[in-house]
Every structure is written in C-alpha cells, then in structure tokens.
Specification:
Largest sheet of chain B: 2 strands, antiparallel
Distance between the termini of chain B: 45 Å
Structural class of chain A: mainly alpha
CATH topology of chain A: Methane Monooxygenase Hydroxylase, Chain G, domain 1
Radius of gyration of chain A: 25 Å
Number of domains of chain B: 1
Distance between the termini of chain A: 49 Å
Shape of chain B: globular
Shape of chain A: flat
Helix content of chain B: 55-70%
Helix content of chain A: 55-70%
Strand content of chain A: under 5%
Strand content of chain B: under 5%
Strand order of the largest sheet of chain B: 1-2
Largest sheet of chain A: none
Low-confidence stretches of chain A: none
Number of strands of chain A: 0
Low-confidence stretches of chain B: none
Mean pLDDT of chain B: 85
CATH superfamily of chain A: NADH:ubiquinone/plastoquinone oxidoreductase, chain 3
CATH architecture of chain A: Up-down Bundle
CATH class of chain A: Mainly Alpha
Number of domains of chain A: 1
Oligomer: heterodimer
Chain lengths: ~120, ~350
C-alpha cells in the first residue's frame, strides 16, 4: 500500500540536489587546481613514508580478513534488506509472520554461529 | 506545479548551503570544545572569538598547492574525495527539516522530497560513501593510505549491518519507511526513543562508526597510520574528505533526531495556540537544536573516550552489536504483537 503513494516526480528533487552538489564539487576541484602554486619536484611527488625512502609500492597483498569481512557483509546485508518489507508489513501479518521470521533468523544465526566458530571474525 | 518546483529548488539550495555552513562551523565548534575540555583557548585569532576561522581555513585549503603523487592513479585519486563529498551532500534530501508552511492556503512541506523509501535511500547513499574512502586510499598507492582505507571500509560495512537491524526494529513499530511519515507519527512527545531505547543505542554507536568518529576513528589514527586514507591528499581534495566527515556527522545527527527524537516535534505543540506557520518555525528551530545537541555529543565523546583497538572494534561490531540488534528485533516483535492483540 505505501509503495503506491510515491510518484517518479518525487525523485526529481534528488536529481536537483545531485546537480547542485556535482556542480559544487567539480567547480571547486577545477578552481583549486588552477589557483594553487605549482612547484613539483621528484621528491615531493614521491610516496610519503614518514621521511624514510619509500620501499616498493603499495600494491601489496593484504590480510585476507578484510576480504572475508566484505563477503560476510554482502551475505548478511542481503538478509537485512529482506527484513525491511517484512518489517513494514509486520503488524498486518501478526504472529504468523513473526514465527516465519524466527525461522529465517534461526537459519541466519546458524550461519552466524558457524563463521564465529570457524574463527572468521578473529582478529589477532 | 511551477511554484512547487521553485520551492523545491530553494529548499535544495538552502539545505546544501546549511549543510556546508554547519559543517564549516562544526570544525570551529570541534576545536573550541576540544580547547574547553583541555583547558585551552582554542582558535581566537581570526575575527572575534576566532569566528572567522572556518573561512580562513577554507581559503587556505583552496590556495594550497595541489599534489598528486607520481605513483598514484590520477583519475581515481580525484574521484575519491569528489565521491565522498557528493554522497555526503546527497543524504540531506530525505530529511524533514520542518513541518509544512502555509502559503496562500496551500501547504508545502519543509522536506525536499518525501519518498516512501526514505530510509533505504539514506542507507544506500551512505553506503556509496564507503567507495569514496576506499577509492581514495587505494589510488594514493601509499601503504598508510591503503591500510587506512581497508580499515575504514571494513569498519563501515561491519557497523552498517547492526545499523540496518536497529532500523528494522524501528520500522516494525512505525510500519513506515518514509522518514517524513515516521516524524509525523512522533507528534508531540511520542518520540521513538521511548519505544526503542535499545535500538537508539545501537543506532548511535553505529553512527559513530559510520562517521569514523572517535572511539572508532581507526582509519585515520595518527599514531600508527599518519593520516590514514587521506595521507597523500592536499589542497581542497583533503578539504573534501574533512568536510565530508563533518557533513556526515551533521546528517547523522539529523537522522538520529528525526528517527528517534521526534524531528521537528516538541511537547505541547498543539496547545500553544499559535498559527500553523509559527509552530512550524519553532519546530525548525527545535529540530536544529536537537541536531546541534547531537553534533555536540559526537564531539563530547571524541574528547572523552580513547580509541578502540582494531580487534576490539570488530568484536564489538560483529559479536555484540549484531546479536544485540537481533534481540532488539525479537523483543520489539513480541511487544508489538502483544499490545496489538486487544
């Protein structure tokens, strides 16, 4: 029911805001690029490493944990998004909907328990 | 129709300007509050009480030399801060800044647009903000920046889960995803914080983590990562990152006030016997007072609590906040159903 009372015209102001913000960002970046002094040198353009000569570049392999967190986020965030339509219609569905969500959450929590036991979230 | 569009355009420009103004003066406020907490004077050179300090900082940022490191990816290096700034500005569209104003018998809402999926829109845009940090940190080709960006992105996405779940509980009690409607339901003193205290607590903790504010400011923790993801940035591109952080803080405070603290509603708003426009005007001031209180709260926490360690941060996010948020959803479900029975 609530999905019907919004028209595409409601999204027009979002486009306006986008144009205003985009205009501001582009103009500012362009003008600061033109305004500031330009005194480049090889050392100045080098990577900052606290004054020590830089070793290698930063395209290094990094901890797999970050990647794992990102994957888990995608999984769990999709589940959370599934809960939104349920939450909107929650009062109409009553206990039946609640029990259904318990089953859903139960399955989710089994997976959650599994990743914790697997040590996927252990940061040492 | 044309009048509506003109009003919308005025609102867009006004919200944009107010967001920038409040963000600029938050930097001043932050430094003054820090000074007060540490028994110092704080900025006091530019103008009376240093009130022109944000302007001086802005001019400085614009006039500084722009450095793009030789090894950086040039396109992404510019795209990062631009994206961070852009997404920070875009969220203000769905926030109801006030009730309606009456012009010639017609009522115009002081909300740029009341789309029926306002909350989802706000979350979607905030999530895109992660890209700004991630792209900027990666493009710098600097190890500090890379580590900062990694930390920032995994922290932000981790806390987004608990934040989403705390909102689920709120949506269950309100039955609405439109922020305008949620605020209207909180008329008078029926503020959601009374019905959702635990949800509010989870939400505000996650808001701190989303904004990279202390005690969750590991992405830019100076003692180990220099400047974090913006180590290599200078000039206005650095300015954009800092600005985006303050705008995000302002927008988060506005969302907290709107969702949990009644937005522009205040107790006894009907019994004052004032005209509709007058009540709306007071409402706008009340809303901004709430927002400014929460901005102050953000700063208060920053100068009070030390920073978490990274494993503590992740443990708090995944093993405490998410289960707590799920429990909150279950409790809310039971209570709402039991009360709805009769």
């Amino acid at each position: 029911m609530i999905l019907l009372n919004s028209t595409p015209a409601d999204y027009l102001p979002i486009v306006m805001m986008f144009v205003v913000a985009m205009g501001f960002v582009v103009t500012t970046i362009f003008f600061t690029h033109k305004l500031g002094p330009k005194r480049d040198s090889k050392i100045k353009l080098d990577v900052f490493e606290c004054g020590i000569e830089s070793v290698d570049n930063a395209r290094l392999p990094f901890n797999i944990k970050y990647f794992l967190v990102a994957i888990l986020f995608v999984l769990f965030d999709v589940e959370v998004i599934f809960m939104y339509p349920w939450a909107v219609n929650f009062k109409d569905m009553g206990w039946f909907g609640f029990v259904e969500m318990l089953v859903f959450l139960g399955t989710l929590l089994v997976g959650f328990y599994y990743i914790i036991k697997k040590g996927a979230l252990k940061w040492q | 129709m044309e009048l509506v569009l003109i009003i919308k355009l005025i609102l867009v420009v006004a919200v944009f300007a107010i967001a920038l103004g409040i963000a600029a003066y938050s930097t001043y406020g932050e430094r003054k509050i820090a000074a007060f907490f540490q028994d110092r004077l704080g900025p006091n050179r530019a103008g009376p009480f240093g009130l022109l300090q944000p302007l001086a900082d802005g001019v400085k940022m614009i006039m500084k030399e722009e450095i793009i490191p030789a090894h950086a990816d040039k396109t992404l290096f510019i795209l990062g801060p631009a994206l961070a700034m852009l997404t920070a500005c875009m969220t203000g569209v769905v926030i109801p800044w006030g009730s309606t104003i009456e012009i010639g018998g017609a009522y115009y809402p002081l909300q740029i647009t009341d789309i029926n999926i306002g909350i989802l829109y706000a979350f979607a845009v905030v999530s895109i903000g992660v890209y700004g940090v991630m792209i900027g940190g990666w493009a710098s080709n600097n190890k500090y920046a890379l580590l900062g960006a990694l930390r920032a992105s995994s922290q932000m996405i981790s806390y987004e889960l608990a934040m989403g779940l705390s909102i689920v509980a709120l949506v269950m009690t309100t039955g609405e995803l439109s922020i305008g409607e949620i605020v209207r339901q909180q008329h008078g003193w029926h503020w959601n914080v009374i019905y959702q205290p635990l949800g509010f607590l989870i939400f505000i903790v996650c808001a701190f983590a989303e904004c990279n504010r202390t005690p969750f400011d590991l992405p830019e923790c100076e003692t180990e990562l220099v400047g974090g993801y913006h180590t290599e940035y200078s000039s206005m591109k650095l300015g954009f990152y800092l600005f985006a952080e303050y705008i995000n803080m302002f927008i988060s405070s506005a969302i907290i006030s709107a969702l949990y603290f009644g937005g522009y509603n205040f107790p006894f708003m009907d019994s004052l016997g004032l005209s509709h426009n007058m009540v709306t005007t007071i409402g706008v001031f009340v809303f901004f007072a709430k927002v400014i209180f929460f901005i102050f709260f953000f700063m208060w926490i920053r100068w009070t609590l030390p920073r978490f360690r990274y494993d503590q941060l992740m443990n708090l996010g995944w093993k405490k906040m998410i289960p707590l948020a799920i429990i909150n959803v279950l409790i809310t479900g039971c209570v709402v159903l039991l009360l709805n029975k009769n």
